[in-house]
Amino acid sequence: MKRVLSGMQPSGQLTLGNYIGALKNFTALQHTHDCYFMVVDLHAVTVPQEPKALKEQTEAVAALYIAAGIDPAKSTVFLQSHVHQHAELGWLLTTLTYMGELERMTQFKDKSAGKESVGAGLFTYPSLMAADILLYNADLVPVGDDQKQHLELTRDLAQRFNQRFGDTFTIPEPYIPKLGARIMSLDDASKKMSKSNPNQGSFIALLDPPDVIRKKISRAVTDSGREVKFDPQNKPEVSNLISIYAQCANKSIAEVEALYEGQGYGPFKKDLAEQVVALLQPLQERYRDIRASGELHNILREGAQRASEQAELMLRRTKEKMGFLVL
Ligand code: AQP
């Protein structure tokens, strides 16, 4: 059985972009693959996090995994910081990563733009992400479009290591959805929807109450026309909303366009809001049940134990290959 690994940062509330671009695929893959899904809390601290909020968001992301349909009996669900081997392999891979490679990462450029001081962790984070994946010899990594470049670097590092020290790591493949791999911001369709965007109106959080969802969608920026037509070049905002509709309602883009032909943005946005509410309401109910059950910590403890066993095997093998004295 092929192995899948992916993760999300508890750097805010998970958004509809995170769901459509990645989480939705996580749940589908667990029926056919050996899956590892983690909450990448060590990545989240590459930008400042308020300690209380970090803990709450970490639990929320883990509970949302399960609410979205990840079954901890089938998949290994854990926190990155509970498996110390990630940090250790991350360091080893940092020593194999070139500065020029990290400087080219667009996410680093975006997140550091205009900041007076930027933590070194934000710069070296792609090496830690490579460690996350290579520790488990993952074959497939389900991610949204924005992570494609980091995954390329992971592949390069695995190949570099294998060439220098002998065959060790599986070269992972990205698994990027054809539709919805890049959901854009509701207030600016030139930027992707991001959970850490300080403007709450720019994203739909998976835990937003129905009325908040309706308000955010009614206020979503659209062009001055009225035609519900998918044309990302000339109508990026409406095209983004059509993508969201298609993903939430399990329809094709053409079906959505046909449904709203000649109707204008008003009825389209109203129905879109109801589609999103209908998708998220059952997920939110399951989320509340999981939080109330008190089971979450046990699930994470068990997941960390399973993940650690696998991670330790790989870390020892890596260290031996590099010439460390492993006793
Ligand atoms: N807008 C998006 N559309 C589709 N997929 C997306 N992903 C993120 N944004 C979109 C995918 O969600 C997964 C989780 O990513 P992450 O938590 O590691 O961080 P990220 O990619 O940086 O996502 P955010 O929401 O933008 O977080 P912040 O604001 O903290 O940087 C990944 O698979 C990602 O591709």
TrEMBL record:
Would the keyword Transcription turn up in this protein's UniProt record? no
A cellular component term from Gene Ontology for this protein is: cytosol
The UniProt annotation puts motif 'KMSKS' region at 192-196
Protein's recorded name: Tryptophan--tRNA ligase
State if Nucleotide-binding is listed as a keyword.
Answer: yes
Subcellular location(s) of the protein: Cytoplasm
Which residues participate in L-tryptophan binding? Answer: 132
Instruction: Give the E.C. number(s).
Output: 6.1.1.2
A Gene Ontology molecular function term of the record: ATP binding
What is one process in the GO biological process aspect for this record? tryptophanyl-tRNA aminoacylation
Q: Which Pfam families match?
A: tRNA-synt_1b
Q: How does this protein assemble?
A: Homodimer.
Location (main, coarse): cytoplasm
Q: Which reaction does it catalyse?
A: tRNA(Trp) + L-tryptophan + ATP = L-tryptophyl-tRNA(Trp) + AMP + diphosphate + H(+)
- Residues the entry annotates as binding ATP: 9-11, 17-18, 144-146, 183, 192-196
What family is this protein classified in? Belongs to the class-I aminoacyl-tRNA synthetase family.
Location of the motif 'HIGH' region: 10-18
Query: Which PROSITE patterns has this protein been placed in?
Result: AA_TRNA_LIGASE_I (PS00178)
Please indicate which superkingdom the organism of origin belongs to.
Bacteria
Which species expresses this protein natively?
Answer: Paenibacillus xerothermodurans
What role does it play?
Catalyzes the attachment of tryptophan to tRNA(Trp).
Q: Which UniProt keywords apply?
A: Aminoacyl-tRNA synthetase, ATP-binding, Cytoplasm, Ligase, Nucleotide-binding, Protein biosynthesis
InterPro entries cross-referenced by the UniProt entry = aa-tRNA-synth_I_CS, aa-tRNA-synth_Ic, Rossmann-like_a/b/a_fold, Trp-tRNA-ligase, Trp-tRNA-ligase_bac-type, Trp-tRNA_synthetase
